[in-house]
Write a structure and sequence with these properties.
It contains 14 helices and ten strands. It is of the alpha/beta class. Strands 5, 6, 7, 8, 9 and 10 form a six-stranded mixed β-sheet that branches. α7 links the parallel β8 and β9. α5 packs across α14. The longest helix is centred in the first third of the chain and has 26 residues. The protein is elongated and about 90 Å long. It starts with a strand and ends in a 26-residue tail after the last helix.
């Protein structure tokens, strides 16, 4: 039978041979990852604060502001304390008691406790936290009286942060939507497989950019994209006028079916596809010729130049000419929108940079145990990225955005932290 509470003596830290976590992320690797440390530090702060709250609740015999005949003590505010960890400086608010004093054991100069907390946060990123992992953590930190229900509540709160962000209600009009996918490796039925990580980023009528959605799945087939876009619609996505993506038929069909918006084929991806039809000596000439299309001042002039360039290639590069004939409308779709927005909407470059960051961080993990672990890590990254964007100036000029709006513009509702 599992005891209801874990009783641990303050002077008996977990020995070094105690296995804290099976996380594949080495602490040293994480410490070298710059922006990764910011997220890790925030999670260390959050979990340390919650563990102190649980510990003080046990010492008082009742929760904060709870009336109970079993109460033994009560709180008397907080005092600030900076905790220096290998993830950086963590600002904590240490609870004060009306009778006696309270100081958490893990703030004593003991690296075992810090290592324990960091390891569990790492495991939360990758696999979620088991009750045993938190039990081990509590032992290393010298705390006592943490019940199984409290452990479960703590774990749920960590996952809730990412879940609340990914499922928040979308409000207002979002004229521009970028969607793309990258791949990571997971285990499935004993095999290692690649799964798609879909990310959607939008710009609203106030010119603000935000991550609107994330989904992990087995492929980039049309049904998968359709369900993803429908999930955004159910959360309130509306007012989409232009969808920017690469030339994947599944994306194109799903966008037409669910959003009724114009589709922009990424200009950068198109150029890569076009150069594949030319040999090495021809590629510079082909790139320069097609480039003349995009310096035209008007959509009409661009279409005329496009057809002229396609005709130039018709004799020596017939496949390239045929490709240009078929792609004209999709590659030049961005020119039907306000000129001030052209630099941002002609390609998926904003998402390419985001996908590169996803790959950089997921490469530290290597192989994920399941899809949920991918969502946990990448979702935390998207939450962090969204916070950074919210502090920056507008991503897009307001000029022309109001004209694209179907309704009065409002911001995406904030997620409580």
């Amino acid at each position: 039978m599992v005891p209801d509470k874990v009783e641990v003596r303050a002077n008996n830290p977990c020995p070094k041979e105690c296995t804290m976590t099976t996380s594949t992320m080495a602490l040293a690797e994480l410490a070298e990852k710059g922006a990764d440390v910011d997220v890790l530090r925030q999670m260390v702060q959050f979990m340390a604060q919650r563990l102190m709250e649980i510990d003080v609740e046990g010492r008082c015999g009742a929760g904060y502001d709870e009336k109970s005949p079993e109460r033994l003590n009560s709180r008397n505010g907080f005092r600030d304390r900076t905790w220096e960890t290998r993830a950086g400086s963590v600002e904590l608010k240490i609870p004060k008691l009306r009778q006696g004093s309270y100081f958490p054991e893990f703030l004593q100069p003991r690296r075992t406790a810090e290592k324990a907390l960091t390891a569990v946060i790492q495991e939360a990123y990758i696999k979620g936290i088991s009750t045993r992992s938190v039990d081990d953590l509590v032992k290393a930190m010298g705390m006592s009286g943490v019940s199984k229900s409290q452990v479960s509540r703590l774990c749920a709160e960590l996952d809730e942060r990412v879940g609340a962000f990914l499922n928040r209600q979308i409000e207002g009009d979002w004229p521009y939507l970028w969607i793309d996918a990258t791949y990571v490796k997971t285990r499935e039925a004993g095999r290692i497989v690649s799964v798609a990580v879909i990310v959607a980023v939008g710009v609203n009528t106030e010119g603000q950019r935000e991550v609107l959605g994330l989904k992990v799945g087995a492929s980039e087939a049309e049904p998968f994209w359709t369900e993803f876009l429908r999930s955004l619609n159910r959360r309130g996505l509306r007012g989409v006028k232009l969808v920017i993506s690469d030339s994947h038929e599944g994306i194109k069909a799903a966008a037409a079916k669910t959003l009724k918006a114009t589709w922009q084929r990424c200009r950068v991806h198109f150029m890569r596809n076009a150069l594949a039809y030319a040999n090495k000596t021809q590629r510079r000439m082909v790139s320069a010729a097609i480039g003349t299309v995009f310096v035209q001042e008007t959509p009409e002039a661009a279409r005329t130049q496009w057809r002229s360039v396609a005709d130039q290639f018709r004799e020596k590069l017939p496949k390239l000419s045929a490709m240009m004939d078929a792609a004209e409308h999709d590659v030049l779709a961005f020119m039907g929108f306000p000129r001030a927005h052209w630099p941002q909407i002609y390609s998926t470059n904003p998402l390419e940079r985001l996908n590169a960051e996803i790959k950089r961080r997921t490469n530290v993990v290597g192989i994920f145990p399941n899809d949920a672990s991918v969502t946990r890590l990448v979702g935390a990254m998207m939450l962090e990225q969204n916070d950074e964007w919210s502090l920056n100036r507008r991503y897009m000029q307001l000029e022309g955005l109001q004209a694209l709006s179907d309704t009065v513009p409002t911001r995406l509702s904030a997620v409580a932290r």
